[in-house]
Amino acid sequence: MQQVDYMAIADEAMSQIRKGAFLTVQAGDDLNVMTIGWASLGHIWGRPIMTILVRKSRHTFKIIEKTDEFTVSVPSVDMSEQLAFCGSESGRDHDKFKKCSMEIFPGKKVRTPVINVPGTHFECKIVYKSPMDPGNLVESYKHLYPQKDYHTIYYGEIVNSFAMIDEV
User: Is the terminal CB of the chain with fewer CB neighbours within 10 Å at N or C?
Assistant: First the structure.
């Protein structure tokens, strides 16, 4: 495990996130992972911030609403099958970690675990969240929500970021 400057690897991480990354959330015994493809990395409020989006219809939403943190694992190896499964199946119906043979290990600065996969990992504390107001969304983006299942946007302060070359 090697500590990394989140901005030094931002372009590479964002390139992979567009293909898919894993969002992990935990509240008590409730643990779930889902695929994300929309996120951003930046500097807001004088802090390193990752923003993620979760729809209210997702099982992950019910868990993230009961916690103040999340982790994002950006794989550097081909995990297309696992990303497809975690993006199309619900944690209400499956233990996605077991179905995808994915191991986890404890976060270093958060309680939420991290997926044991080569790549870049972000541990984040939620500092702000906001449900989308469709009235504030430009008309040309509204086609992205045909069922009107708008996201809640979570702003997570990046409290730890690291790269793993080999599995833990």
Answer: C
Residue whose tokens read 């009107």? 148
Query: For residue 33, which of 90, 116, 80, 109 has the smallest C-alpha distance?
Result: 90
Query: Rounded CA gap, 81 and 21, in Å?
Result: 12
Name the class of domain 2-164.
mainly beta
* pLDDT tens track for 96-133: 999 999 999 999 999 999 999 999 999 999 999 999 99
CB 153 within 8 A of CB 51: yes
Domain boundaries, the chain: 2-164
Render 72-94 in DSSP notation, one character per residue. Answer: EEEESS--HHHHHHHHHS-TTT-
Read off the pTM.
0.91
Within 13 Å, how many C-alpha atoms sit on residue 64's CB side?
Answer: 34
The count of other CB atoms within 10 Å of the CB of residue 167 is: 10
User: Which H or E element spans position 64?
Assistant: helix 59-64
Work out the burial of residue 85: count CB atoms within 10 Å of its CB; fewer than 13 is exposed, 13-18 middle, 19 or more buried.
middle
| pLDDT per residue as tens digits for the range 77-87 | 999 999 999 99
Residue at token pair 């939403």: 61
